[in-house]
Design brief:
This protein has 1 helix and 9 strands; from the N terminus they run E-E-E-E-E-E-H-E-E-E. The chain has 114 residues and is mostly beta strands.
Length: 114
C-alpha cells in the first residue's frame, strides 16, 4: 500500500494540508498554532477536550482489508484517562469509534478497534 496521507499539523487558514497528494485535507476544530514545533509552529490541542482535526473520507481510503501503519509524533504534557490522539468515529461515545489510539494518565498506549 502506498502512502495514504501525511499531515504536518500546520494550518493554511482552517485547513490542515495533506502532503501525500491524495487530497485528504483536514479541517481544524479548535486547535491553535501557537505551540512551538520541531521546525515551526504546530497545532496545540490542550485548550479544550473538543479540539480536533476532522479528516473526511479517510476510512474510504483505508477500506479493503490491507495492512497499514499509523505513525505520529506527540509531545504530551499531560493526558487524562483515555485521551485520544488519533481516531475514527461518528460520535463521542466509545461505541462510536471505528478505531482509536490514545494514552492513559500513566502514558501507556491504548488501542481500540471495533
Amino acid at each position: 500500500m502506498a502512502l495514504v496521507a501525511a499531515w504536518a499539523m500546520e494550518l493554511d487558514g482552517s485547513e490542515v494540508t495533506d502532503y501525500s497528494g491524495n487530497d485528504l485535507h483536514g479541517t481544524n476544530n479548535g486547535a491553535v498554532t501557537d505551540a512551538a514545533g520541531k521546525y515551526d509552529n504546530c497545532l496545540d490541542f490542550e485548550r479544550s477536550e473538543s479540539d480536533y482535526v476532522s479528516i473526511p473520507n479517510l476510512n474510504t481510503e483505508l477500506d479493503g482489508g490491507s495492512a497499514c501503519t499509523f505513525m505520529c509524533w506527540l509531545k504530551p504534557e499531560s493526558f487524562a484517562s483515555w485521551d485520544r490522539f488519533l481516531a475514527s468515529s461518528t460520535g463521542s461515545d466509545s461505541d462510536d469509534h471505528d478505531w482509536m489510539f490514545g494514552l492513559t494518565t500513566a502514558q501507556y498506549l491504548r488501542v481500540r478497534l471495533n
